[in-house]
Write a sequence for this structure.
């Protein structure tokens, strides 16, 4: 009896030790350390030994693209480096892109020690592409000291919605755009009441986990934007009670998107996404330096030469490469930008083979990217979003023997094998316990360890669904009867002209009561044996990346998949839109953020 008590006490002490260690690791996370880890991850993934080499190589080669420019700005906010090669290349792209991108280019130049004709850039581009060209225009005015900031502030305040925030379109504010507007207004006079109204709106939009949703989908970019805005306004995201929900801060929510590699994912549980990663870096740096948008200050050559230190132990141990990181005179760490990987565009954000383990996924250009990738002219006349879908890759594997999917909502038949499997696991583990007890070989550690393993096995069984290919592909979708609920589905890329096609011509199908536009699409494409790439939860947070090999951004930075129901573009994602009998659903590919498929009234 005494031995058993000792064993139980030892097990309890071990559990308490693990809990304390875990709690210490969780609650002592510093933004500065997390930013260092992002930089280490980026250098490692691209195969660079030091930051200056990274600047002269990867950043310079891709100057003029959003990720490179924002990463350069982040490095400039954190230390002294030689950006001369980068700025020469950046100047070559000064006239590329749309007005917002040209303004962002000028902002990047001033933040990295380059020079621009701010008056000329503002004259040609300010206000020419809606709210984003005004936000970046105001940043450029503040950085250069040129331009009428009072008018720019008035222009931005005139776009503030009745709920206190801002949006690219419609009359319901979005946390991303609201946070971006606040970053531009930081430090400006005469807008205190508007700023407070926007802060109240951000507080009201915050979720119980501390995070934020954009277009109904929780994303890391939304968290990053809000953190940057609060920091720019001198508000501590960790302690201000307006931004602590159920004991969780936006910083906590942002860290929940961190991947094992050191990057950040767009959606929780996804792969590292470079847009999400670089925006997380901006947010973490903002927590250290406050205002992110500041002119570049070059220290002496001697000081600059002393800013690089040895590689982080984590990287050197794993790769035997000396990854040089920056320790600034003021103790700050790095900031990043946002990357949009373009397919077929004039400037492609192409990653190296070193990133083969982590898919670099294009991110939602509409709201989650603060980098001015796609901005629309907005008159605040509609609640409809511009893009409804963007996504990362998730595949369903189909074999000749069976199709195994996880967490599928619709078309799931009863799974009696699960009951048998769970029962078998329970009986098997119970038998093991009795056997060990009879042999007097049962300990507390073995009991706890075995129970954990058995629990994991049960969870795997519960989230796995096994179907034959016939079950997966049919699901009674075309068995229309007189009493059937129905919907029609169209999937088309016809707006691509000669390259376009009707992937699924308008066809009537059986509607499962309560299913969403996405679940209907998934069933139809499975039935038609058409490939579908998406990410997020199939219940709610879904982003469509590609259908039948046609992907977002493949035909320009404003291209991607949108959906409409009964000729209207819903204000929620397709995973949240519940269909009704007789609905006409269309998934259409756009090359101009909806303007080429009849979404003009929603994108003005």
């Amino acid at each position: 009896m005494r031995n058993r008590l000792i064993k139980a006490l030892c097990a309890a002490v071990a559990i308490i030790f693990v809990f304390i260690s875990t709690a210490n690791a969780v609650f002592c996370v510093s933004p500065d350390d997390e930013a260092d880890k992002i930089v280490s991850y980026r250098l490692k993934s691209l195969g660079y030994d030091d930051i200056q080499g990274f600047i002269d190589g990867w950043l310079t080669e891709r100057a003029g693209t959003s990720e490179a420019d924002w990463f350069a700005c982040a490095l400039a906010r954190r230390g002294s480096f030689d950006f001369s090669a980068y700025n020469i290349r950046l100047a070559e792209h000064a006239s590329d892109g749309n007005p917002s991108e040209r303004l962002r280019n000028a902002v990047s130049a001033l933040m990295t020690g380059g020079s621009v004709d701010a008056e000329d850039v503002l004259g040609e581009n300010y206000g020419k592409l809606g709210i984003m060209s005004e936000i970046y225009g105001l940043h450029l005015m503040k950085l250069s000291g040129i331009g009428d900031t009072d008018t720019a502030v008035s222009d931005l305040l005139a776009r503030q919605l009745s709920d206190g925030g801002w949006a690219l379109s419609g009359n319901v504010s979005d946390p991303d755009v609201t946070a971006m507007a606040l970053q531009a207004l930081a430090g400006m006079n005469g807008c205190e009441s508007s700023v407070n109204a926007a802060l109240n709106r951000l507080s009201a939009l915050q979720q119980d986990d501390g995070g934020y949703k954009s277009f109904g989908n929780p994303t890391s970019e939304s968290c990053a934007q809000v953190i940057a805005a609060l920091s720019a306004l001198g508000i501590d995201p960790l302690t201000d009670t307006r931004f602590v929900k159920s004991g969780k801060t936006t910083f906590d929510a942002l860290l929940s998107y961190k991947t094992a590699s050191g990057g950040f994912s767009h959606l929780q549980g996804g792969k590292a996404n470079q847009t999400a990663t670089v925006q997380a870096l901006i947010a973490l740096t903002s927590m250290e330096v406050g205002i992110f948008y500041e002119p570049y200050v070059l220290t002496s050559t001697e000081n600059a030469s002393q800013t690089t230190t040895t590689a982080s132990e984590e990287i050197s141990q794993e790769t035997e490469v000396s990854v040089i990181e920056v320790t600034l005179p003021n103790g700050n760490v790095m900031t990043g930008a946002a990357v949009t990987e373009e397919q077929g565009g004039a400037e492609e954000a192409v990653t190296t083979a070193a990133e083969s383990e982590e898919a670099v996924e294009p991110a939602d250009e509409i709201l989650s990217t603060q980098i001015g990738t796609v901005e629309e002219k907005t008159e605040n006349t509609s609640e409809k979003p511009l893009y409804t879908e963007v996504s990362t890759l998730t595949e369903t594997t189909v074999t000749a023997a069976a199709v195994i999917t996880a967490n599928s909502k619709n078309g799931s038949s009863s799974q009696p094998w699960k009951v048998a499997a769970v029962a078998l696991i329970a009986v098997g583990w119970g038998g093991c316990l009795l056997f060990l007890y009879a042999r007097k070989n049962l300990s507390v550690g073995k009991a706890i360890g075995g129970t954990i393993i058995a629990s994991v096995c049960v969870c795997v069984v519960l989230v796995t669904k096994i179907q034959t290919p016939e079950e997966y592909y049919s699901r009674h979708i075309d068995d229309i009867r007189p009493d059937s609920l129905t919907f029609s589905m169209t999937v088309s890329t016809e707006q691509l002209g000669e390259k376009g096609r009707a992937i699924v011509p308008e066809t009537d199908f059986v509607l499962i009561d309560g299913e969403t536009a996405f679940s209907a699409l998934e069933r139809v494409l499975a039935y038609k044996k058409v490939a579908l790439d998406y990410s997020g939860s199939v219940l709610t947070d879904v982003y469509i990346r590609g259908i039948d090999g046609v992907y977002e951004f493949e035909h320009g930075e404003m291209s991607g998949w949108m959906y409409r129901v009964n000729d209207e573009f819903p204000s929620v994602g397709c995973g949240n839109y519940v269909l009704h009998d007789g609905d006409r659903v269309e998934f259409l590919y756009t090359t101009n953020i909806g303007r080429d498929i009849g979404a003009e009234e929603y994108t003005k």
Summary: The first helix runs from residue 2 to 27. The mean pLDDT is 75.
